[in-house]
Amino acid sequence: MDDFLNTFLNWEYIWEVFPDLLGTGLLNTLILSVFSALIGTVLGMLLATMGLSSKAWLRWPARVYTDIFRGLPAILTILVIGQGGGILIPSLSRNPYPLGILALSLIAAAYIGEIFRAGIQSVEKGQMEASRALGMSYTKAMTLVVIPQGVRRVLPALVNQFIALVKDSSLVYFLGFLAEQRDLFRIGQDLAANTGNLSPLVAAGAVYLVITVPLTHLVNYIDKKLRTGRKVRVDDEGGETELLNAGKVPMS
Amino acid sequence: MTTAVRSSSVELRDIHVSFGTLEVLKGVNLKVEKGRTTCIIGPSGSGKSTLLRCVNRLQEPDSGDLLLGGESVISSDPDALRQRVGMVFQHFNLFGHRSVLDNITLPLRSVRKLGKEEAAEIAHARLAEVGLADKAPYRPSALSGGQQQRVAIARALAMEPEVMLFDEATSALDPELVKGVLTLMAGLAERGLTLLVVTHEMGFARGVADEVAFMDDGKIVEQGAPEAIFDAPRSERLQRFLSQVL
Predict the structure, then answer these.
(1) Is the N or the C terminus of chain A less surrounded, counting Cβ atoms within 10 Å?
(2) Cβ of A135 under 8 Å from any chain B Cβ?
């Protein structure tokens, strides 16, 4: 039992690693995952709309991109982009941090694009038809009517993807960042390697959970809200209008 | 229901539509005079809805001509055409993520470029006309099917169309909700809006239409005043159809 505690929960090492985890590691993990989530979401939406286009020259590049970035191990993509980018642009070779964000973004875009595509495709055809019948252009119908409804339906899947991104951001470990650029995993791993004790990694894991567990609960919350939001019934002829689950939205 | 309407005649000339090898419309001619109501009846798969969708070019015909107010609009900008031709669908197709009010103001603002207040004013007026003034802030899903269809009609009317198309507008409604929608449609006919109505409601066709067209197998088989169609059908196919639905 003492061996177990000493290996995984050695308080001395945990105290030693904690300031770095919270000061440097948490910040960098958040920077890596938030930036790549943002870029990945924008690129993903672009891929989704391209993938749904009636024009083959837009559809095919999106398809090929998605197949490649979803089909490769993330670690391989990160190494190829992170080291390859440094070779092509020498000024980045000493500081591959932006390349790490780029690689994470490009991978995330492929998955997020597929999530958006599924959501947009799930919107009834009648929504597009009604918009067009009212004189809206295809672009207006997509941006004002179809995409907002499609995105809403896939919010849980999208947040799940963000959770995966937070965890996968640890893979930039292999790019060898500067000391002040180290993420949660790297800081835990560095001390673990120096001490031969796993407690710093356990501490890093705890910080990951502080980020990811609330996000998983956010998924459940959104999911539940989306489900119950539909159970609405009202009688037809005004009079005694009963709203079991108020569909009322604030007037804008 | 007092607002003046600006309506136009609409005419389809020798319209052909094929889906792959399946010929759905085989040269259809149909004219609805300004301010008149024509009902299209016929069995499922006869091409009624496809014909209706050619009028606002949601379905582009393979060949033929389309005239609105006497002018060809078959190769004009479809978005401009659709601002002049309103359409009401079987499944309402209200925008589920917007309130009832926003359903009406969205096209007014994005297509007709009206300001927020002006659009809201029109939307409230149109909702009042269909008897749903108090539903403005609700989501469509909080309304019954009949109410949703009336909102859809208000949404189309707000664009001030010259022609209105109804594609089986009451087919998805519970029986007790059909009447309110049909009454509303009859009111539009009375106001002098040009209506082209695909319907299974024979009572409506007989009572409201100026003319009834019977379609079968991609063609208009028989066409005339409701009395002629319903009381003295000439073709064997129409006789058989009426014996099945009446």
Answers:
(1) N
(2) yes
